[in-house]
Amino acid sequence: MPLGITVVDYGMGNLRSVARAVEHAAQGRARVEVSDRARAIGQADRIVLPGQGAMRDCMAELHARRLIDPIRECLGRKPVLGICMGLQVLFEFSEEDPDTEGFGYLKGDSVRLDPGIDASGSPVRKIPHIGWNRVRQARIGSGAGASAVHPLWRGIADDERFYFAHSYRVRPKDPDLVAGVCEYGGEFAAAVAAERLFAVQFHPEKSQRAGLALLTNFIDWTGEI
Amino acid sequence: MRSLRCRHRKDRRALFRTRLLSPLSSLFFKTMTLARRIIPCLDIDAGRVVKGVRFVDIRDAGDPVEVARRYDEQGADEICFLDITASSDERNTIVAVVEAVADQVFIPLTVGGGVRGIDDARRLLNAGADKVSINTAAIIDPDIVSRLANRFGSQCIVVAVDAKMTAPDQWEIFTHGGRRATGLDAVQWCRRMADLGAGEILLTSMDKDGTRDGFDLALTRSVSDAVPIPVIASGGVGELEHLAQGVIDGGADAVLAASIFHFQDHRIVDAKRYMAARGIEVRL
């Protein structure tokens, strides 16, 4: 029996690209389905939660399709990969739509990236942050025993470039959740890891070899660290 | 000091840029870890690549998938498709092209040409495009930009602007391949597009397009300094130095070119090595 991977379809984002990249990475070892049915989400071995657009619209679509509870039931129980807004919705809320509640599965929020200001009063950085930027992999745990990186980084060079396209960044309350860091006018969390959960701000499905390597690692991941 | 204080604020800014920022620019490009992008552009007519792509080692230079794969292997950071299909019955062929390319090429794809509204954008994004670029539709109805940005997010809405110089340091927007003037000032227009939610500006100089003698750097610099969103410079690239100039002198976040890559004058990886040697952060 090949692994069953469900890409959650809530009408937000480039699902086809995500599904095709996961299929490509799986090399026939997994059956990839794009679905908005609770049953498909419940039965899958792995879940991919993509997403694009505003927090308010993403949460509204998830509610309208009654997908909040089915996704919540997967979190912590089986491997879940969040991508872009699929990372941000896991937190409590976003500065963009303070009245919209996210899943609140992870403590923290998302805030707009800071363009900064130079001596002449012009912004230093362009927002959205679009393009290929480096991701520094965080060591698991802290203190002297911290050495290994997360299994999803296996075979991927530290400081490898991934493709980003976003205006908001997440701020996890617990710094130990941060699995990867990117620099754009200060460091921000480019990847977050919790129990059986890995979520990234960048787009692995659009990050060529490095992105496909991360997706392969996700397919192979049992959820253990 | 006195003369400096008397200057107009705008002049002071320009002075600051030239005196202080230029020598620092190579340092600046190094401290920024975000790479400047190189984007090859393909014209698509009824599902086929046109304007003669000449790769010696591909079987069918008209096949968008084959050409896109070659650019991907060479290290393109993104690929741009411009649909120039005139016949309305063949309008949907671009959707099939995007699907076929997105099935095999895992880098960002931008698609423009004939995007008129939400439905066109949705079809392309669902087919695997990461960004759609709109041009004439935004001129007819600027609010389309905010509707698209609200629906799909700014990061996937590119506004393409074709500009011609009408006086020194002044550029006007043209449509219909540069034949129809709009009366719109290019720099102001780009600022307005950013305010309405555009995520990027794809800026083409109609004066330079096809000349192979380099970008209109004054235009690129003016727009790049005026908008808070990334600018992709386009039109006029004939050699690798032009790409570097677009970033260093024009301030572009990405550079787009067609013919120098199509005719294999230069591979994309050569362009990146050249830019890296000029102190520009690139993905190698």
Give the key terms.
heterodimer; A: 225 residues; alpha/beta; 9-stranded mixed sheet; 3-stranded mixed sheet; 12 strands; B: 284 residues; 21% strand; globular; disordered N terminus
Q: Could you explain the architecture of this structure?
A:
The complex is a heterodimer of chains A (225) and B (284). Chain A is α/β, with parallel strands linked by helices and 225 residues long. In chain A, helix 1 (15-26) packs across helix 6. In chain A, the strands form two sheets. A nine-stranded mixed sheet of chain A has the order 2-1-3-4-12-11-10-7-8. The two termini of chain A are 24 Å apart. The longest helix of chain A has 13 residues, at 208-220. Helix content of chain A is 23%, strand content 29%. Chain B is an alpha/beta fold. Chain B has helices at 2-6, 9-31, 64-74, 93-102, 118-127, 136-140, 143-152, 186-195, 217-226, 240-248, 259-262, 268-277; strands spanning 37-45, 48-49, 79-83, 109-112, 131-134, 157-167, 170-175, 180-185, 200-205, 231-234, 254-257. Chain B has an eight-stranded parallel β-barrel with strand order 1-3-4-5-6-9-10-11, surrounded by eight helices. In chain B, strand 9 (200-205), helix 9 and strand 10 form a beta-alpha-beta unit. In chain B, helix 8 packs parallel to helix 9 (217-226) and helix 10 (240-248) packs across helix 12. Residues 1-27 of chain B have low confidence and may be disordered.
